[in-house]
Design brief:
alpha/beta; 8-stranded mixed β-sheet; 27 helices; 52% helix
Length: 811
């Protein structure tokens, strides 16, 4: 059963719709209930173009009908034909693995579906004259929707009333903000930067502009994988291709050239092939990631993309915004200071002038909400027009019949007069306050940068309270070697002061991003400075790109529309749920309680998953490398593969499968170093080579001294068990109560099966000659493993030095 593509899903949705009547409702009234029901029944809803999440049936199908399960089924049929039913002991393990995968994936799906439902995009709709907040997917054609700053436009719409500044960069690639007024079109996928408007939905669901882009974007995202999953995919594909020709050659050699019986030839071939298949490794990674998703969900962290667990664990640069991350996502007016342009004898009280300005504006961002809360009394003047705050121009304005008031960032509204006031403004900012200038403008506002300076009437000092846990959180990242970059649109002096109070290292090294004109200046600042003020949305994106070009793994946190571009480009993107919908939908990870202090726990969860899977994967790879090399050894020296499938299953169960699953769920706070597949391969190689040398020598000497092949098979199984437990002990170190219990329990389990279930696992008594050979090679395994481990370690260090890479990459 193949899942339908997004394009197929879209076409099916379109086919199910029937023509409907179009409406032009009054924007204050909206559609009535009958009209909404009519559009809904005709299929004109705003359902997303994504096909629904995998159903339980699809999860079961994908876990049961796999390539390797097909191989195991064919091998089982061959063993049944050969009459070697005892060799079917690998089947219960395969069935158990499949069941575990299904159960964990279904459990994770339920938890994440519930969280996703809670975090789904919402919209404020006007119906029957009432304003209601509903899920964006419940909207229908011709609905009147109110869009505010921070909202993502959820369907193509036409502005009916109001005015907004829109960022269409994710659609057009242009970062300039566009003003939309009555009659203008809003494209779905764009973000409202400031202002408020009523808009009628013109194209919904599969017809909307964003649907076409979503198909491409989502398909690309699905193709992306973390290094760990990418490495496992590569390993599984290589093994999947190799086992078929090797299996055929082993059977042909045993049956036709060594004249072994059909049953013996099939049994030895199946044993070799089973040994090469990492049947539990991919499952182990999937289960561990699914368990982590559930754990993070319990901590109110929603994952849009599971790969970010690993990516975040590898992060070495963390870019944070001041507001919402270091500080609370609220703002308060601390003080109002009169400027030299204010004349108390001729003018109304300054607070009332600002009150007139505030009364005319909407609470479309936290700054304006703080201003409106503080200045609630005015003279009652009626505004003629207004301009919402823009991150490009850094000001907002209200035009009255007799005057134009402007509130904005000092550098952007004072222009060339800023240098005269710079010392005073810097003094306020150095205390950690955000300074805005309020004044009058002699000219016409067109929404673009001011052509001349305003006459300053007063300075507004605002501040965000620093989060209680900020200092502890940033101290943790410093200890873990994660470099923090503070990127903000505020005054760099203010941001630097706040960063110092939050305990961010090197916070005194700040720069005004508006002064960075060339690409070289920008790159130099990004690599050398810690705090960046007056940063534009496009610069945030450039900062992330420069850091990635330098080989850094970059995480970006944000909560505003101006963070979206950088969030999209970062290796790992983190959004606060209390911020804008745009940021939450653009991010891979959403902190549902907007609590940045839980980030260390998220990082530790990533490290636990990657380090433990890396450790457990090396156990699986020992068996795979050994089986591959021993198969080649058997082909070259024309000997029958010395092990039976049941013996391979016994070793796999107690030296790999059982301990791997326990170890994969253990706490592990170690910093991740090096590349996944390289680390796993180099840890497994010494043990695999020890196995090949010991078993190969045992077979050769056994044939020389005339030892029965059945005895050799049992001795080889016990040798593999000894080496398996040695490598298990080594990768489990340092030992604790759980690890000791896992290793001890595995040894007891293997001994129990070997003694009481010896017929099932083909464990027989050994002759005196075989016992003597077994004792000699058992003693030899420890020094061989030790010297091979040392040799591989030295070769790795030599390779790192040869490539000019730091020795610290040694895991």
């Amino acid at each position: 059963m193949q899942r339908k593509s997004r394009q197929q899903v879209i076409e099916e949705k379109k086919d199910k719709r029937i023509p409907t009547t179009r409406y032009q409702p009054e924007y204050k009234v909206g559609l009535n209930g009958q009209q909404v029901q009519e559009h809904r029944l005709h299929g004109w809803t705003n359902q997303a173009v994504d096909p629904p999440a995998k159903t339980t049936r699809e999860i079961v199908h994908e876990n049961v009908f796999t390539y390797f399960n097909l191989i195991f089924t064919i091998l089982a049929l061959l063993l049944c034909i050969a009459g070697s039913f005892r060799s079917l002991t690998f089947l219960p393990v395969i069935i158990l693995n499949t069941l575990i995968g299904i159960i964990q994936e279904v459990r994770a799906k339920k938890v994440l579906d519930n969280l996703t439902m809670l975090n789904a995009p919402h919209a404020m709709v006007v119906r029957d004259g009432e304003k209601t907040v509903i899920d964006a997917e419940e909207l229908v054609l011709d609905d009147i929707v109110i869009f505010k700053a921070g909202n993502q436009v959820c369907a193509d719409a036409e502005v009916c009333a109001g005015e907004v500044q829109v960022n269409e960069s994710l659609l057009t690639g242009e970062s300039d903000e566009v003003t939309k007024r009555k009659g203008d079109q809003l494209m779905s996928g764009s973000f409202i930067v400031s202002g408020q408007c009523h808009a009628r939905l013109d194209k919904v669901g599969a017809d909307s502009y964003i649907s076409k882009l979503t198909i491409e974007a989502k398909e690309m995202q699905e193709g992306e994988q973390s290094e760990m999953i990418r490495s496992l995919d590569k390993l599984v594909k290589c093994v999947g291709i190799a086992i078929i020709p090797i299996g055929i050659v082993l059977f042909v050699q045993a049956f036709f050239f060594q004249n072994a019986g059909f049953q013996s030839s099939i049994t030895s071939m199946v044993a070799a092939v089973i040994g090469m298949i990492p049947e539990g490794l991919y499952l182990l990674a999937s289960v561990a990631l699914a368990v982590s998703s559930v754990r993070l969900a319990q901590k109110k962290v929603l994952l849009h993309d599971m790969k970010c667990i690993e990516t975040l664990a590898r992060v070495n640069v963390l870019c944070v915004d001041k507001t919402g991350t270091i500080t609370e996502n609220t703002m308060k007016v601390q003080e109002v200071i009169t400027a030299n342009g204010y004349d108390s004898e001729k003018m109304e009280p300054l607070s009332m002038l600002i009150g007139d300005f505030a009364a005319a504006m909407d609470s479309d961002n936290i700054t304006m909400a703080a201003v409106k809360e503080h200045f609630q009394t005015g003279t009652g003047k009626k505004p003629v027009s207004k301009t919402g705050f823009s991150s490009a121009t850094k000001y907002s304005s209200v035009t009255f019949e007799d005057q134009v008031y402007v509130l904005g960032a000092p550098e952007f509204v004072l222009l060339d007069q800023y240098c005269e006031q710079e010392e005073e403004i810097t003094g306020y900012a150095s205390k950690g306050a955000r300074v805005l200038v309020f004044g009058t403008y002699d000219g016409e506002i067109d929404g673009k940068a001011l052509k001349k300076p305003i006459t300053p009437l007063g300075y507004l000092l605002l501040a965000n309270p620093i989060r209680k846990e900020a200092k502890e959180t940033f101290t943790y990242f410093k200890e873990q070697g994660v470099e923090v970059k503070v990127i903000s649109g505020d005054n760099p002096v203010t941001v630097s002061e706040v960063a110092k109070k939050a305990g961010i290292a090197n916070a005194e090294h700040y720069v005004d991003a508006s002064s960075l004109k060339s690409e070289e200046e920008l790159r130099k600042a990004v690599l050398e400075k810690t705090v960046f003020g007056r940063v534009t949305p496009n610069q945030k994106r450039q900062f992330v790109q420069i850091l990635k070009e330098e080989g850094k793994t970059v995480a970006m946190t944000g909560d505003g529309v101006n963070d979206v571009l950088a969030l999209k480009d970062a290796d790992c993107s983190i959004a606060m749920a209390s911020g804008s919908e745009a940021a939450a939908q653009a991010s891979q990870l959403v902190l549902l309680e907007s609590d940045f202090s839980c980030m260390p726990q998220v990082v530790l969860e990533g490290r636990r998953v990657v380090n433990n899977i890396q450790r457990s994967a090396s156990l699986f790879l020992v068996k795979n490398i050994f089986s591959f090399l021993l198969s080649l050894f058997s082909v070259v020296f024309m000997i029958t593969y010395p092990l039976e499938p049941s013996q391979v299953s016994l070793i796999s169960m107690f030296t790999i499968g059982v301990p791997a699953f326990f170890l994969a769920l253990e706490p592990n706070k170690n910093i991740i170093k090096g590349h996944f597949l390289t680390n796993v391969f180099l840890k497994a190689l010494p043990a695999a080579l020890t196995d090949v040398i010991a078993v190969g020598a045992l077979v050769v000497f056994g044939q020389t001294f005339g030892v029965n092949p059945t005895d050799i098979s049992t001795a080889a199984t016990m040798l593999l068990a000894i080496v398996g437990f040695m490598i298990l002990y080594k990768i489990s170190a340092p030992m604790n109560i759980l690890r000791t219990a896992v290793v001890g329990g595995s040894i007891i389990g293997l001994l129990f099966c070997s003694i009481f279930l010896h017929q099932l696992f083909a464990i027989t008594g050994m002759s005196t000659k075989c016992i003597m050979l077994f004792v000699v090679f058992s003693i030899a395994t420890e020094p061989v493993l030790r010297y091979l481990t040392a040799l591989v370690g030295k070769l790795r260090l030599y390779y790192l030095r040869l490539r000019g890479r730091p020795v610290e990459e040694q895991p």
